[in-house]
Amino acid sequence: MARTVSVTSLTARIRRLCDLENNQHVTDAGILDLLNEAYPVYYDMLIGQDCPDIVLKKVSFSSVAGTLEYAFSSIASDGDFYKLRSLHRRATDGSYIPVRKFSNSENNYFRPVQVAETLYMQYYPSAPVLAGGDSVEGYNGWEDWLVYRVCARIMQKRKEDFSQFQANEAREEARITKSKDRDAWEPSKVIRRKREKVAYPWDTSRVDGYRVAGDKLELVTLGGLW
């Protein structure tokens, strides 16, 4: 079950912790501004902890024969692309096959795709701007980081002691980071396999690799060493 917390609840809690329940010199709008200042950092932590169920988006698009670059703004219909999570190509049997990332060192072994192929992309959109009626995902109490971050900023602006809030913020960040692997299962034994380099001819009938280059996605057919 998701642990969603409303911005209204976060604001009320921040007021209680900072002893500002009856102090309107610090407005709700001001607290919302501080939440929006902190939220992109919190959002990056959610991505770092592999939380796709709340932020991951999915889209299908087609490659164009002879075209190397594809603008993310045109692939993501909302124009909200932030980070690529995965890319798959659709095989003739309807299944989706992962497309591997290639590096700059492989520049001598690629050429633009020469085929129109259906691709499936999963990506993280940009962090939203919070409004008063919105909610944030707290998972296992992770929203505490947001609360302590904003409390520290308020007390700092008021020239009051904010060290305890800052310490709590650091503690919560360490807790979130420690929870990075959300799959708690561990294998009984680690198996290492040596990767073998195999030469293969050009196959222009498929998309073999991709690279993120600024605000564009590059799709290529690979040849040479795999």
Structure overview:
With 226 residues, this protein is α+β, with helices and mostly antiparallel strands. It has helices at 7-17, 28-48, 52-55, 72-75, 144-157, 163-178, and strands at residues 4-6, 57-62, 69-71, 81-90, 96-98, 100-101, 110-112, 118-125, 135-137, 199-200, 209-213, 216-222, 224-225. The strands form 4 sheets. Strands 3, 6, 7, 11 and 12 form a 5-stranded mixed beta sheet that branches. α5 (144-157) packs antiparallel against α6 (163-178).
Contiguous helical run count: 6
Q: How would a textbook summarize the main sheet? A: 5 strands, mixed
Mean pLDDT: 84
Structural class: alpha+beta
Tell me the number of strands. 13
Radius of gyration: 23 Å
What does the secondary structure layout of this molecule look like, with pairings?
Layout (H helix, E strand, L loop, with lengths): L3 E3 H11 L10 H21 L3 H4 L1 E6 L6 E3 H4 L5 E10 L5 E3 L1 E2 L8 E3 L5 E8 L9 E3 L6 H14 L5 H16 L20 E2 L8 E5 L2 E7 L1 E2 L1
Parallel strand pairs: 6-11
Antiparallel strand pairs: 1-9, 2-8, 3-12, 4-5, 4-8, 7-12, 10-13, 11-12
Helix pairs in contact: 1-5, 2-5, 5-6
Q: What's this model, at a glance?
A:
By secondary structure, the chain is of the alpha+beta class. Helix content is 31%, strand content 25%.
Any key phrases for this structure?
226 residues; alpha+beta; five-stranded mixed beta sheet; four-stranded antiparallel beta sheet; 6 helices; 13 strands
